[in-house]
Amino acid sequence: MYNIAIRFLNNKMDAEDILQESFTTAFSRLEELQNKDLFGSWLKRIVINNCISLQRKQKIAFEEIDEQRHGEVDEMDEGMPKVDPALVHRAIKELPNKGRTVLVLRALEGYSHKEIAETLDISVSTSKTQYSRALSLLNKKLKGKIDVN
Amino acid sequence: MSTELEKYLNSQRETLDVESPDDQLIWEGIRQDLHSSASHRGKKRMLIRIRNIAAAVIILVSVGYMINDIFGDRILGGGVSLADIDGELGKREQEYRTLVNFKQEEARIFNHVDNIIIAELLEEIQKLDTIYEQTMKDLAELGHNEQVIHTIFDTYEKKIYLLELIIIENNKIRNYERDESLYL
Question: Distance (Å, rounded) from C-alpha A50 to C-alpha A104?
């Protein structure tokens, strides 16, 4: 959960605060959870929602993007080599806030673009474009750091 | 379009969790939060009521502030007080407010609003006022929230800075006019 938070917020203290707040919320509202087996995914939702809420407070706005460039991904990954996960994690954290949020939600947390659009209050097209850009940028960052064949 | 990188992220999701938090600190915080919520459950309802009343008061005062801001002075912050949330914060806000008032008076003495730089600075102050109004709404909604409080004080600091720039610009214009009159 901490890694989810820090990938969203890129700040240790904020991530720890969100984690604490999310656990407290989850524990104090445990009776609302019908199926206790779903505690993990429920908590994850709370963490993600709290992260997005904090980002909003920090005035990270998601502007609508008209251009439809979401099919475009740089000539990338002609096969991913073995990559140190720590390197990928760090590269994700270095992405711009908006793109990082969409990328984390889509690629790591399995949200659909429709869900992302609803969660972040943006259009599906914007979500796709942000995602595509973030993915492309991440690829560039990794290419600069590792030996991609 | 599924790429190798996407596939990698998807399949290696778990291995990317490479950082670990200060567990002890977080659990201590959770323990304290839960403990205080359990032992103060009775008081909590009362506090919620009080907070609702306080929020209503803050909203009313905010509306007053907005009306004052729209029809009155654009520079001066006024109306809502953080003192409703916390005495110390209220004291700090009062200090900022006094400083804003002081700087505003100083800026107003020779306020060359037709000067393009000063006009721009006043426009920036208007934007800050809008942020302030929005933040006060957040405060009314969220109560004691570090981020909101930080934004309020940040707004004051930026406003003071902009007022200082107006004062400097006023002084420049005044000195220029004075120098010019010496040559006439």
Answer: 15
What does the pLDDT look like over B45-96, one tens digit per residue? 455 555 665 666 666 656 655 555 554 444 334 445 688 778 888 888 888 8
- What is the domain-level CATH number for residue A131? 1.10.10.10
The answer to whether residue A57 neighbours chain B at the CB level (below 8 Å) is yes
Rounded to 10°, the helix A39-57/A113-120 angle is 50
pLDDT tens-digit readout, B104-127 = 887 776 666 677 888 888 888 888
User: Is B24 at the interface with chain A, CB within 8 A?
Assistant: no
Residue of B nearest to A11 (CA): B21
Question: Is the confidence metric ipTM above 0.85 for this complex?
Answer: no
Question: Is residue A20, in this structure, part of any structural domain at all?
Answer: yes
Residue after which a domain boundary falls, among A57, A77, A94: A57
Domain that holds residue A22: 2-57
Q: Look at A16 and B25 and tell me if their CB atoms are within 8 Å.
A: yes
**Any chain A CB within 8 A of the CB of B12?**
yes
Residue B165: CA count within 13 A, CB half-sphere: 17
Which residues of chain A are within 8 Å of residue B18 when distances are taken between CB atoms? 3, 85-86, 89
Report yes or no on A79 lying in a domain: no
Q: What is the pLDDT of residue A102?
A: 92
Structural domain count of chain A: 2
Q: What's the average model confidence in pLDDT over A109-121?
A: 89
Q: Structural domain boundaries of chain B? A: 19-183
Q: What is the pLDDT of residue B170?
A: 81
Which residue, A15, A38, A57, sits at the end of a domain?
Answer: A57
- Report helix, strand or coil for B107: helix
Between chains, do A20 and B29 touch, taking CB under 8 Å as contact?
A: yes
* Under 8 Å between Cβ of A4 and A109: yes
